[in-house]
Amino acid sequence: MINRVYIKDFLSFKEVDLEFEKGLVVFTGSSGAGKSILMEAILSLFGIKEPKAKLSEVILESSIIDEDFDINIGDEIVIKELKKEKTRYLLNNQSISKKRLYTFSSMLIKHLSLKDKTDFESWKLIKFLDIVSSKNSKFKKIKQEFDTTFQALQKEKKELNKLIEDEKKVEDLKEFAKFEIEKIEAINPLIDEYDELIEVKRKLSKKDKIEAALKSLAPIFDSSHLVSNALELLEVDSSFFDDAINELNNHFEKFNDSLSELEELDIENILNRIEQLSSLQKRFGSIQQALEYKKQKQEDLEKYENISFEKTKLEKRIEDLTAIVFSLASQISEYRKTALIKLENRVNHYLKFLYLSNAKITSNKKELDSTGIDEIIFNLNGVDLDTISSGEFNRLRLALLTSISEFEIVNNGVLFLDEIDANLSGKESSAIATVLSQLSKSYQIFAISHQPQLTSSANQHFLVDKVNGESTVTLLNKEQRVDEISRMISGEDISKEALQFAKNLLN
């Protein structure tokens, strides 16, 4: 349960510091006072809504065990929310992501909003039935195997569809693959060939200049003996000069040898070859990628040649996988039927207090999909939900949501109800108040109320007010509650009848 909430600098609220008790906590106030945004601020502390306050903190008593955060039942939990350039969350002074916070909170907190109309949709009910069934380890194993096998089946079906499409145009595909392979094979490129040919081209472009330079240096070798003689006269060891001349001569001879090799090359063929390799590089990015593309097309061609055989094999695999998936889906369906009975019993339990009865939840067979072969149908007194009144729909929905909450969050958890009694008659409001009063024995419930019936049932009653653009929250004593409930009944001009009716409700 939530013991305390502190919020600072949140829209029209400068500072909120509230302490809560067990049971039903109700917020009332005129339209625009800030009731809904206050609820959102509290929900943001659990990762359910987007944060807007600069600083928020909630202190609650744990009703779960969480080994990751070393939390046991009865421990105090402190969640902080700090918003500057970005929002940070802290759980017992440990940093935590919003996603992880939401997962952690999901066993403690449940938010029920009448704005969400998807609760009776089959996929959502199936999701809940699977949560209930997952308490059985056998079901968890079967469901996991179903999900894995169904994904494999879908993958094989996708591959078969591709093969069928390929089969229709296999001759064109074969011709295209052959054409692409032959085009690359006609060039027959080697990995490093392009770079080597570019180097040859570079040498050929410098050939004439180097020959002319070497020819102009011939007198150096003719006069080298004169330098040696001079060094001897100077009594200087001439070996360094002789070595240099020999080294220079070796380089020149080596180049002359390479020139003779270059002269044997066909420059036109080299340039054509470079152009061919360059065209491959422009198309594929590199010679390596061109060769990989050729290999892929060779594999495709082989597959096209064997497409009928591959198709037969794939069809057999799909047949086997389909049989397995249907078997698993049928087993899952039996577990769901058991969970469905539990859910139906709890819904009808609450409907007794809401002046409704005979909700029926049935499971019909449907075409296999990722959820299995079950379609969940909800009706009331044998009538489709599309034809019942809005009041009946809202009460039925409350019964469903409260029943689901019993399974999804633990005892002593917290329920947030957003305008649960809006636009209801007095009788309907009284019925909802009865249900929530009973439910509040097991859960702490936070509700925004527009009706005196639910408000008078509260264990704590807070008034949200706004004066000069600033919102405040005040815990009301009994006399103040009488005044507020009277206002809800008759408006700002409180009549004696409204005052007496409010006292009777509270008593």
TrEMBL record:
Residues 143-173, 245-307 form a coiled coil. One of its GO terms (molecular function) is ATP hydrolysis activity. Gene3D superfamilies: P-loop containing nucleotide triphosphate hydrolases. Residues 4-217 form the Rad50/SbcC-type AAA domain. It comes from the Bacteria. GO terms for biological process: DNA recombination; double-strand break repair; SOS response. Keywords: ATP-binding, Coiled coil, DNA damage, DNA repair, Nucleotide-binding. GO terms for cellular component: bacterial nucleoid. Belongs to the RecN family. May be involved in recombinational repair of damaged DNA. This is DNA repair protein RecN.
